[in-house]
């Protein structure tokens, strides 16, 4: 299937996987709306993506803020009247309950899990009349590896995994496809490491580029209508999991 002229919304689209995906989809002549909370990053993303296509739109919004999300989807309604694809991607790092404040637990959970549910619900309300539509949730292999010291993040991404699996089976989902992508280590601003270590990880094939995940997203979205890719894990070839 082609994604030319599809209306696509990406959360956390100003950097990392979201930005790489927006860039790739614009190259395929889709219409892309990205939103993020950092206005400076968002403006830079808009400038960079405008070099590829004029069909890029940005909305400053925090996925944890319900009023902000309503503005994002109202923008979709006012400008396009439909939504074809949602890519739930906004995310923050989270550690363990042993060294994380109550406020950080609440905020990262609102970003990494509750924001996904809210965006999916709002997207569903607009997609239900479509002949076909697609929701892609970006999870994490942490949901399967249970890494020590990141139990808050594991809980959140396990929630995304369970949500994706159950939503796909909902009788009301109709012709909306639901796909879950669970990456391993990806070189985004969620990863804290020195530039020296970053280079070494890439040379050793221990970390993915955001573009690797973006290419997988494009592959999923462009399968023929009879094909439904439910769940995919992707990691760097030498990342030990």
Automatic annotation (TrEMBL):
<comment type="similarity">
    <text>Belongs to the short-chain dehydrogenases/reductases (SDR) family.</text>
</comment>
<keyword id="KW-0560">Oxidoreductase</keyword>
<dbReference type="Pfam" id="PF00106">
    <property type="entry name" value="adh_short"/>
</dbReference>
<protein>
    <submittedName>
        <fullName>Short-chain dehydrogenase/reductase SDR</fullName>
    </submittedName>
</protein>
<dbReference type="GO" id="GO:0016491">
    <property type="term" value="F:oxidoreductase activity"/>
</dbReference>
<dbReference type="InterPro" id="IPR036291">
    <property type="entry name" value="NAD(P)-bd_dom_sf"/>
</dbReference>
<dbReference type="InterPro" id="IPR002347">
    <property type="entry name" value="SDR_fam"/>
</dbReference>
């Amino acid at each position: 299937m082609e994604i030319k002229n599809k209306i696509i919304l990406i959360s956390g689209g100003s950097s990392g996987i979201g930005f790489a995906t927006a860039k790739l989809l614009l190259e395929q002549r889709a219409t892309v709306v990205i939103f993020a909370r950092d206005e400076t990053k968002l403006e830079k993303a808009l400038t960079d993506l405008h070099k590829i296509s004029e069909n890029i739109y940005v909305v400053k919004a925090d996925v944890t803020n319900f009023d902000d999300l309503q503005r994002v989807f109202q923008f979709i309604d006012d400008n396009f009247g439909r939504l074809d694809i949602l890519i739930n991607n906004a995310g923050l790092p989270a550690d363990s309950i042993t060294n994380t404040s109550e406020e950080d637990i609440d905020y990262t959970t609102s970003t990494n899990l509750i924001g996904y549910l809210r965006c999916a619900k709002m997207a569903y309300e607009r997609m239900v009349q479509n002949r076909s539509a697609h929701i892609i949730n970006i999870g994490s292999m942490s949901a399967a590896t249970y890494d020590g010291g990141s139990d808050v993040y594991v809980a959140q991404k396990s929630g995304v995994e369970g949500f994706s699996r159950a939503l796909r089976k909902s009788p009301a989902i109709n012709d909306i496809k639901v796909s879950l992508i669970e990456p391993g280590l990806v070189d985004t601003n969620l990863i804290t490491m020195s530039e020296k270590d970053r280079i070494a990880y890439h040379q050793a094939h221990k970390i993915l580029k955001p573009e690797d995940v973006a290419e997988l997203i494009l592959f999923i979205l462009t399968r023929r209508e009879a094909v439904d890719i439910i769940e995919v894990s992707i990691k760097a070839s030498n990342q030990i999991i």
